[in-house]
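A sample copied in:

***
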Amino acid sequence: VERINREAAAGEDEQRLEALYRSPVWNDIGFTLAAMRYWRSWLLLDRHRISATPGDLEEAQRGFQTTLALIVYPGLARGSWLGLGYTALAVGKIEMARSWFDRVAMTEIALAKHARNELELLDTMETETEIVLNVTLTPEQADELENQALALLQRHSKHLDGASRAAERLLNLEQAGELSLDRVLRLLRYRDEIIGHHIGPMGFLVSAENALAHQQYYSATEKYRSFFKDISESRAIEFADFRLQYIRALLGADLTEQALAQLDRIRDEQVSDPSSFYQLRFVATARLYAQGGSSSARQSLAAQAVALGKMKVASFVSALFS
């Protein structure tokens, strides 16, 4: 609108028009319009990655192709090379993606590092990783394997299998004893991508978390049971928060006595949120009493209520007997 208004104000006066076209204001308006198309293309590409909204990828590609031709704005043009690489990658056109990434990688701009990383990941996808038993990794090597695995999972799609190569790296971390709780928590952001791949005991945990999220309680209990069976006692303590998840699945499956048995295997100081521990114990004890509890069950329920102290348990009680 601003461009139209300024051209209209100049009318047919060629000198005024020439001065307008050479002015910094005109250049700023042109750059702003081009930048809007450019950044909109990145937003569309990101939305396609998250939700696969129909038409986003094609529209992003058209936007990058438009700014690609604007050689007067080299930053936008070269950034569009990278964007076109990602749009090609999204539909599985690996060689085309490589060609765009190569163009960016050969420049001196900041985006060149991103392009080189993508080229390395493409090489990684095409190279099978050897699973090594009883290997010792340095912290730097472990971090590199994790970063590669997460990057591969982030790029996994129906056109691009990043999960298989990611699983190989995760299994190497597991074999080396480097798949710590913190690493697993980061991994679970890509639960849908890695599920079903062999990554050792953590594969059971991923499946259990997925089943619990979808309220498939019986399936979740089996997966959690397999997970805790396959890890050491010391590691089970490290993953105590996931035993609470196991207990939630058991309660969801109406396996109250098993839930109480699992609660007896951990202490409140082992979990990150002790209040959840006490709430689950209260729920399990109350359910057992509601199912025909004895006087000892009543006493246990009263003791749990005292342990909860000032916590608001009314919502739990009403949910149990509703």
Q: What stands out?
A: Confidence is low (pLDDT under 50) at residues 310-315. The CA atoms of residues 176 and 280 lie 34 Å apart.
